[in-house]
Design goal:
Number of helices: 8
Shape: globular
Structural class: alpha/beta
Radius of gyration: 17 Å
Largest sheet: 6 strands, parallel
Strand content: 5-15%
């Protein structure tokens, strides 16, 4: 039986460019793997683009009070994606140049309506903090020759956010047998560190104990 990491690698690079959802336990390399595939994508053709979306439940309400441009206001939310691109060989200086040339873009959810994304590798990180309507609004924006990767953990929905749409979206995919790769990661797939894995196991076991 193929392990989850191998299945994820293959799904990220499938020739049919089907959407991918990597969801489950933290520390399993979901965003890292997506950014690794994105760096490969960008290296193939100068016309190809990357779009990063990482929602924060307070973004729409609070970003207006942060100083700076729209891009500067987004900085705290997209930093993990930038870090993972850098870890996969795309330095921060290279990323800055590619942003200036619009090969790399970051966009808040509220500005996506009416847009179409062609020839773009799209990473939606922390997707558990999107409503079902957010997901619907985004997935109906996908244009030609684009690849969408959604990363999230249903068990890590922000306490400030009570309307996650990820579970419903997964149910819809299963109900209609849609052409979407879904890979569920568990604590057995944790890569981040031994300490991280021990903590995750303890928290999961503690939740089970409390609810028993």
């Amino acid at each position: 039986m193929m392990n989850n990491h191998k299945a994820y690698e293959l799904a990220l690079r499938d020739k049919h460019m089907m959407p991918v959802i990597g969801y489950g336990t933290a520390g399993t390399g979901k965003t890292y793997g997506a950014c690794q595939a994105a760096v490969e994508w960008l290296s193939k053709d100068k016309r190809k683009k990357f779009l990063g979306v990482r929602p924060n439940v307070s973004f729409a309400e609070k970003s207006g009070y942060l100083p700076g441009t729209e891009r500067e206001k987004m900085e705290p939310w997209i930093r993990p994606i930038m870090q993972n691109l850098a870890l996969n060989g795309l330095s921060y200086n290279q990323q800055e140049c590619m942003e200036k040339n619009h090969a790399i873009q970051y966009m808040p959810l509220e500005h996506i309506q009416g847009m179409t994304f062609d020839d773009t590798f799209i990473v939606l990180d922390e997707v558990q903090n999107m409503t079902f309507e957010h997901i619907k609004g985004f997935m109906t924006r996908i244009g030609k020759y684009s690849k969408v990767v959604m990363c999230g953990d249903i068990n890590q929905v922000s306490p400030m956010f009570s309307n996650s749409g990820l579970s419903e979206y997964l149910d819809m995919i299963e109900h209609f047998d849609m052409n979407v790769h879904t890979i569920e990661f568990t604590r057995d797939d944790v890569l981040r560190s031994g300490v991280c894995k021990e903590q995750i196991i303890a928290f999961e076991n503690w939740d089970t104990f409390k609810n028993s």
